């Protein structure tokens, strides 16, 4: 592994709170970090190898959370044949930011045969928090991607849900230089936010993107039955995408409900792709 400074480090803008760029490469049958650039509040753990050649990588925020005006940039490049599981050390806690939002930009590049399973912990916006996240994926048609995000409302002084100001998420996916997905989620709480047409009475929201997997009707039925057998009280939707791929949306009453659904879906995908079950990542 090599660690370098940013090419423009001398002329860099001081606005960055933290940024990180990693490149992964397959060497002698296992994936290793080819290069790593860290700056500001973002760090990366050493690779953790479990069963198989794929490392688990942990993003570390050295501060206690995100505050008004914070700007983060993360770039992940998976070269040909490389595979990894990427997660965060803990939840993304977004504190009061009434004027300038906390902003995070994520770029994912997947070469032919590259595979990334990105499982960040939950995003928790607290009272008066504003959070903007932009995710841009460019991948080969022979690459594979699992990408999830979960939003849970944070604590407020009066004990009420949904006291954050807004959470916005933009997701774009290009496959072989062809746009296949543009997804914009804008949650802006108001007096009727938990009612019909918005959170539908639920408190937690999650989405899981799977790219590089052709969703057949039998598989759709198996996934639907597996989710039903969990007995969760949430609402789950599944939509096929070009690319090929599909998106899973979940409204739930707890983080655990959303994670259970995602684990079932990941389990099905992992068994078909790798002949194994995904490991549950223990952090607490």
Give the helix proportion (percent range).
10-25%
Q: Total number of helical segments?
A: 2
Globally, the shape reads globular
**Strand tally:** 19
- Sheet-strand content, in percent, reads over 45%
Query: Average pLDDT across residues?
Result: 87
N-to-C SSE series? EEEEEEEEEEEEEEEEEHEEH
Rg, Å, rounded: 19 Å
Question: How far apart are the first and last residues' alpha carbons, in Å?
Answer: 28 Å
Which spans have pLDDT < 50 for at least 5 consecutive residues? 1-14
Domain tally: 1
Structure class? mainly beta
User: Main sheet, how many strands, which sense, barrel?
Assistant: 9 strands, mixed
Structure characterization notes:
The protein has 284 residues and is mainly β. It has one domain (18-274). 12% of the residues lie in helices and 46% in strands. Strands 4, 5, 6, 8, 11, 14, 17, 18 and 19 form a 9-stranded mixed beta sheet that branches. An 8-stranded mixed beta sheet has the order 1-3-2-7-10-13-15-16, with no helix packed on it. It has a two-stranded parallel ribbon with strand order 9-12. Residues 1-14 have low confidence and may be disordered.
